[in-house]
Design goal:
By secondary structure, the chain is mainly β. It contains 4 helices and 14 strands. A 6-stranded antiparallel β-sheet has the order 2-1-11-10-7-8, with no helix packed on it. Strand 10 and strand 11 form a beta hairpin.
């Protein structure tokens, strides 16, 4: 039998196998723990914490009221004056809203203004300013729209009518006037002390009718000795 040979110039059928390279073995290291990361020199690692005590913050004391309104009529409530001013009226934007359900159907309630009056203080003096066409009264005296009068201890506020007394004002920085002569009380409103002397003291006063300022000197008789007495 004759052997078959591939034609000359044809591709060779024999192939040579090449050995496959094996992957190099690598040594893997485990995760580094915090104990391993900390050095032996005594330094702290990133996960170590130090307890810190924060100083306590003192609470701000509550502001003390400088005046108080006590109700004299049904449907009104007491009110402490802490801020420098308060607006009173039927408008919901007022600081003190005249919205008691028992008063809404009354004739008096209908003549209260949306912005009826304002109570405010300037330094140590307290004033009431009238915004109403129907009037605000202090101890029976009509203030007048866009005018003001000083407000002192035990003053009575009335709205729309002199007899409609709704508040009595208590001055918590009180300057009592009960010991003053009646004629002086009727014409002037005495407020804070503005000076002292050997014979007595000087107080700031406001004329009730015009709100004009005056200085009133009060002399205490007990500081003087009667004649003939050593």
């Amino acid at each position: 039998m004759s052997e078959e040979r591939p034609p000359e110039g044809g591709p060779s059928q024999s192939t040579q196998s090449k050995p496959q390279s094996q992957p190099a073995s690598s040594s893997s290291s485990g995760p580094t723990t915090s104990s391993q990361s900390s050095s032996g020199s005594g330094t702290l690692s990133s996960v170590d914490t130090i307890p810190v005590t924060l100083p306590s913050v003192p609470e701000e004391p509550e502001a003390e009221p400088w005046g108080r309104l006590l109700p004299m009529a049904r449907g009104f409530r007491s009110h402490d004056c802490v801020e420098d001013q308060y607006l009173f009226g039927r408008d919901s934007k007022c600081n003190y809203v005249l919205d008691d359900p028992d008063n809404r159907g009354s004739r008096k309630f209908q003549i209260y203004s949306k912005k009826h009056f304002r109570i405010y203080r300037e330094g140590c003096e307290v004033f009431v300013e009238d915004y109403s066409n129907n009037g605000t009264f202090v101890d029976g005296i009509l203030i007048g729209k866009n005018r003001k009068l000083p407000l002192v201890n035990n003053a009575v506020l009335a709205l729309s009518e002199r007899r409609n007394k709704v508040f009595v004002y208590i001055d918590l920085m009180s300057h009592d006037q009960s010991s003053l002569p009646k004629e002086l009380q009727e014409k002037y409103l005495l407020t804070r002390q503005i000076g002292t002397g050997v014979c007595g003291e000087v107080k700031l006063a406001f004329e009730r009718s015009s709100c004009r300022k005056y200085a009133v000197k009060i002399i205490k008789k007990k500081n003087f000795q009667s004649e003939g007495v050593s």
